[in-house]
Design goal:
mainly alpha; 76% helix; Serine Threonine Protein Phosphatase 5, Tetratricopeptide repeat
Length: 552
């Protein structure tokens, strides 16, 4: 109740001398409450009713405008134009700063920079001490690359309220964009000599790091930290300076401070650590693994509910060859946040990769119960059943996917493709071919089905011409896929077209064909048919060697 009273008092203060209208149309207090509750359509209708009853009520037009604009920003198509409502309010009461400001905001957020600029310039003529309008103009001038006007606005702000961190930093960035580095640096230095600011000192450190002045950068960061020992930008800059100069013990010591900083942004911490991982060589990662573990663990302890930190730590453990630790992190986070679909999927992916098939089956059902429209989750079940060689179970799982998913969807396509493979495995060949046809009705260019359909037809010695067309179509889509090349080359061999098959197999050898005993043996047979017996022996021996090692 206290919050509601506070909101209504704020609303009344905002309206100023606006008249409250009561009666059958309700009051502006009702409008304010509906707007505060996020019921923008209701707020607009009530405000419109009041403005119809009292066309000279500027506040009603204003509240109709902000309600319409809220609808517009939420993706709805409002029944009126917010700008026109604000213009009507301003025409009735041009002395209300908020009416004018909201109109300028509408223009700015709609990308109407010229209109926004003109409105803010008009506002400043009437309200010369409203510094927030000055800042908006600075941003608009910067967007238009009008540095002189932006700098003039900063001068005017400083005349009103004196120098501050925001004005100094903005001036610095403008000058830097103009490639006036010495002038930009002088702005920061002059300010830091007069005012103690961790933010500006950190920017000075960043500037010196950009100039490769490591010792000066560290000095500025330390000055900033002397003022505020937990100032995150200074800790980050100091850590990065140590990293770039390869002072790794100092780097990790500073990084620990940053990770344990409760005020620093959790996503920013995770992003920085991921950048370190991505831009470090394997030797660094291996040498400093214990320190990286400790760093990630500190971040997780400080932010146990932040997805970017927890998932980032899981990625680190996974990439460093410790999937069990990654699984533990992903699992704990997914169980603590069952409403986050991405977290559930990541956990299922890890469970699947580690062949935790019983858990995969159980967690897939739980996830599907929470997200019934995400039928593709059943693909995890299908993979688990396949690993267990439960082919009838895979078929039943695919039938369930087809029953639940929209007709002709990608989910149905993948289900038909897998079901066809399973029917062949269980010896139900006619069902296999019929199922493949259903898949190709959804997408007649789906390469996995085209390849498998062609391959199984060739094994049966049936309709080789049709099989060859499908194999060619698959290869056309993935010309460097060794499996697809092998299928096409073998069918050509079965058709007696060994001259045409030979370059297909040569191409396959360049893109992974040498890793397959089957492909190597097929190539050897083509070469034998062409009389190239010596080369055929080489590939036959390689194929036999792989077969002896249990490789297909």
């Amino acid at each position: 109740m206290a919050v509601m009273k506070k909101m209504i008092l704020l609303f009344l203060a905002l309206l100023g001398a606006g008249t409250l209208v009561f009666g059958q149309n309700g009051s502006l207090v009702d409008v304010a409450q509906a707007y505060a509750d996020g019921k923008y359509q209701e707020a607009w209708k009530k405000a419109s009713a009041i403005s119809r009853a009292d066309p000279d009520n500027a506040a009603a037009w204003y509240y109709g405008g902000i309600s319409l604009f809220a609808l517009e920003r939420s993706g709805s198509v409002p029944e009126g134009d917010a700008a026109q409502y604000f213009q009507k309010a301003i025409a009735l009461d041009s002395t209300n700063y908020w009416y004018r400001d909201r109109l300028a905001t509408v223009w700015m957020l709609r990308g109407e920079k010229e209109l926004a600029t003109a409105e803010y310039e008009h506002i400043l003529r009437d309200f010369p001490k409203r510094t927030d309008a000055y800042y908006q103009l600075v941003n608009l001038y910067i967007q238009d690359n009008d540095a002189p006007k932006a700098l003039k606005m900063i001068d005017e702000i400083e005349l009103i309220q004196g120098k501050s961190d925001p004005t100094v930093m903005t001036r610095y960035r403008i000058l830097l964009a103009q490639k006036k580095q010495e002038e930009a640096l002088a702005v920061l230095q002059e300010y830091s000599e007069e005012y103690a600011s961790p933010q500006v000192l950190s920017m000075l450190g960043d500037h010196q790091m950009g100039m490769f002045s490591d010792s000066l950068a560290l000095d500025y960061y330390n000055q900033a930290l002397a003022l505020d020992k937990d100032f995150a930008p200074a800790l980050l800059g100091k850590a990065e300076t140590y990293r770039m100069t390869r002072h790794f013990p100092e780097f990790f010591s500073t990084l620990q401070q940053l990770m344990d900083n409760a005020e620093a942004s959790a996503p920013a911490k995770a992003d920085y650590l991921m950048q370190v991982l991505q831009h470090s060589d394997p030797r660094f990662l291996q040498t400093w693994t214990p320190q990286l573990d400790s760093t990630w663990n500190t971040a997780v302890s400080r932010h146990p509910a932040d997805s970017s930190v927890v998932m980032g730590a899981g990625v680190w453990y996974y990439r460093s060859g410790r999937p069990e630790q990654a699984l533990d992190l992903f699992g704990r986070y997914a169980q603590a946040h069952p409403d986050q679909f991405g977290a559930r999927v990541t956990w299922l992916q890890m469970l699947s990769e580690l062949n935790r098939d019983e858990q995969v089956l159980a967690e897939t059902e739980k996830a599907l119960a929470d997200f019934p429209d995400k039928v593709a989750l059943l693909e995890f079940s299908g993979a688990a059943l396949y690993r267990r060689k439960d082919y009838p179970g895979v078929i039943a799982n695919c039938e369930r996917m087809i029953a639940l998913a929209p007709k002709d969807s990608a989910v149905c396509l993948n289900a038909y493709a897998l079901m066809g493979d399973m029917y062949y495995q269980t010896g139900e060949k006619e069902k296999c071919f019929k199922t493949y046809k259903k898949a190709l009705k959804i997408n007649d260019s789906f390469a996995p089905v085209l390849n498998n359909y062609a391959w199984y037809l060739s094994k049966e010695g049936r309709t080789l011409g049709h099989a060859c067309k499908m194999a060619r179509k698959a290869v056309a889509q993935e010309p460097d896929n060794a499996t697809y090349l092998d299928t096409l080359g073998w069918i050509l061999h079965l058709q007696g077209k060994d001259e045409e098959a030979k370059p297909i197999f040569k191409h396959a050898m360049l893109y992974g064909g040498k890793e397959s005993a089957v492909t190597l043996m097929h190539y050897a047979r083509v070469l034998e048919k062409l009389g190239e017996t010596d080369l055929a022996k080489v590939y036959r021996r390689q194929a036999e060697s792989k077969s002896e090692q249990g490789e297909e």
